[in-house]
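# nightly structure sweep
# worker-07 picked up a monomer target from the shared queue
# config: single-sequence mode, recycle default, output format = structure tokens
# input follows
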Amino acid sequence: MKLNPIFNSNMVFAHGKPVRIWGEGSGEIRLTFAGQSKTIAADGRWEVEFPAMDCGGPYELTALQGDNLILLTNIWVGEVYLFAGQSNMQFKLGESAAAPETWIDEPRARMFATNRLEKNEFFCAESGWRPCVKEEAGHWSAIAYHVCTAIAAEKNIAVGAVFCYQGASVIESWMPAGAVREAGILDKPAAVLHEKTAYHKWNEEGVLYANCFTQVIPFAFTGVFWYQGEIDAVPEECFLYDRELALLIDIWRYDLRDDALPFVVFAIADYDTRPDERWKAVQTCQMRMETICENVKSVKTADVCESNCIHPPTKAVLSARAVKAMAELTK
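# output follows
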């Protein structure tokens, strides 16, 4: 018997959402969480769902199969956000304009990182859930750090961040292989459209969906923060990005079993060497997502970025906008 790696001590479940727990094993397995128990007869992959809960904790989670006991402690119910996309979401606090002396310990904010194909991260799934401490904060996604510490302080609740991103990734890779073409949006595979596909193994269609996103299905999230699109500013695709992102939102909501899952979409930042119509087209598509999809808010970045850098280091102001946008969606 084993649990999916996302289930670990110090984790956070989303309040008001079903508490889904899954893993692998066979035989009779008894799951107990926050005083509630369920027993299943497992044969391979298994899943248990407990009712939604209010914010609170700490709780324990146990999984018992014969003499095999898994005990997880210091579990809280609060808000949990998925931080997804490419390099500007991956961009670390330690690379940002926030000086180390401003980093804080925030035990109410915790993070979990999905395993990535590019294995050079400080955090990975085997790291488990890690409370935010100054000594490790520099390895957090800068946006996730600012968002989670702000919400934890404002609401005095536990806030979880799940990292699921990959620099220089195309949007087609974050959906099942062939999804964009099957939807009639594009008639060419990603390998033909994107010049970087040849040397980034994760940019084949469906690769990041299969290897990264599926690690969190069907965890229940409070919302998703999405920052991606720079690499999709190519002639055949830039004017269609809104249709692609709308498809991704539909697919992810279906997989995560939440038809109204809130999405905050960051428009890509201005960049001096890419002021062309393709770049502007992607920005325009991203800014109109809130008029295309329900429960979506767009966040403008062009007026708070350093346009001489494709990875603007000023992320605090941008993150504050994202917090406000998400609050409007979840109120």
